[in-house]
Write a structure and sequence with these properties.
Largest sheet: 2 strands, parallel
Number of helices: 5
Oligomer: single chain
Helix content: over 70%
Distance between the termini: 38 Å
Radius of gyration: 26 Å
Low-confidence stretches: 6-11, 13-22
Strand order of the largest sheet: 1-2
Length: 173
């Protein structure tokens, strides 16, 4: 699959170079680091802060339960020689139940975080794609690639238009 992407990128660049070369002999290609750009914009910073706040709230929600689990584990270790076999077994089952509840709640919180992240990031991604498209048209780029694409192993720093895209994004507000 990765080989196919690399092949498509190479062929695309070759065809664009061949097809657009008749204009003025130069093909303008740009690279953009979308993740860096999104967290560098004013809106992206607000989204990042909001997501970090949600993470802190989730941690605050689950942390007391984790502490209670650790305390129960410690109590069990201290009392395992004193308790009867039945009492020891009951405590072990209670401990396993606590672990399961914490894991289930943690998975639910993680899933909720992913949903919140997607809900908050999607509008930014759409707006950003529009801005990159405008930059491509206005500045005469034949191709703008995402820096994180698997086929890009090296690029000159001069091709990077991330800062330009961030500036345009912030200008549009």
């Amino acid at each position: 699959m990765r080989v196919n992407k690399v092949l498509v990128l190479v062929l695309s660049a070759a065809f664009l170079g061949w097809g657009l070369g008749a204009d003025d002999g130069q093909v303008k290609i740009g690279l953009i680091d979308v993740q860096q750009a999104l967290v560098s914009t004013e809106e992206g910073k607000k989204v990042k802060e909001d997501l970090e706040r949600k993470v802190r709230a989730a941690e605050a929600q689950i942390q007391p339960k984790i502490q209670r689990l650790q305390e129960t584990q410690k109590e069990l270790q201290e009392m395992q020689h004193v308790l009867s076999k039945e009492a020891l077994q009951k405590k072990q089952f209670d401990l396993m139940e606590m672990k399961t509840q914490i894991e289930t709640e943690g998975q639910g919180l993680e899933q909720q975080f992913k949903l919140d992240q997607a809900r908050l990031m999607q509008p930014l991604l759409e707006k950003f794609a529009t801005i990159v498209d405008e930059i491509g048209r206005k500045k005469g780029f034949a191709l703008i690639l995402e820096r994180q694409d698997p086929g890009i192993m090296y690029s000159r720093e001069a091709l990077d238009i991330t800062d330009l895209a961030v500036a345009e994004f912030n200008k549009k507000g």
